[in-house]
Amino acid sequence: MRFPKPKSLFVIIGTVALTAAVACGNAVTDTPAADPTAATNPSSTQSATTITRSPGAAPDFTIPLYQTVTSSEGGDLTLSDLTGHPVVLNFWAPLCPPCRAEMPEFEEVWQTFKTQGVQFVGVDVGPFVLLGNADQAVEFLNEVALTYPVGQAQSASIVQDYGVLSMPTTVFLNADGTVHRKWAGPLNRSTLESITAELLQ
Known about the structure:
This protein has 201 residues and is α/β, with parallel strands linked by helices. The protein has helices spanning 6-23, 97-113, 126-129, 134-144, 157-161, 189-198; strands spanning 29-32, 62-64, 76-78, 87-92, 119-124, 150-152, 169-173, 179-184. The chain is built from 6 helices and 8 strands; from the N terminus they run αββββαβααβαββα. The strands form 2 sheets. A 6-stranded mixed sheet has the order 1-8-7-4-5-6, with helices on one face.
């Protein structure tokens, strides 16, 4: 993970906060991987142990997981530990209305795909876009009873690393860690299911 200098960090927080305030839920952009030939999707029958993390994988990070009424996991989650599994990475914030609106459907789609090896991860960037704190996040997560892992980003650098300029933003990762597609803006269930299914092809 790259940690920007203090001046750069201030610029990142200010830029993303302003963008989120103006564009939260308004922008919808589907961005495929820059080089589709560089990513190799595993079939749903491949063993996770046969897949290694690609040198071109998305930036690694570690987040502390929230403990909620439906998830007592706690501890930390490191993205690279999920190598071998397709990952749906959702960047959200507790005071972002479209983020809150889509998450119950994320839970439903997660329940459909988790038995096929797909991992959903929620990354709360609220403090870095001025859209909520940890207490507000846990309160909301308890309301919607999410069961997939959700934690809070520990640095604004993750916002820069993943180009999070609209809230929510969802990044779909192949089993080798490379970016399959990125979606800026809210997702409906049909689209979420469709792109998640692509990760298993």
